[in-house]
Predict the 3D structure of the following.
Amino acid sequence: MVAAARRLSGLQKDVLHLYRDCLRAIKSKPKEAQPRFRAFARKEFDRNIGTLKRTDVKAIEYLLRIGRRRMEQYMAPTVQDISHQ
């Protein structure tokens, strides 16, 4: 018996959409820098997974806005590499 798939909220869909957009945008970076960009994106998303509650809508919306802005900045053609620590 297969469990029914749980429906995602609009915010959850927005977060997944931003993550997928980040992964797609990383493909435009130089091959040797792509793993560092992926690791940076994963680290940024992981940082907030354990600290936020699903019901903290204002914080999630704020982080989505910040994430979109950062993605636009980092995906500029002049940014060729990234360092994550």
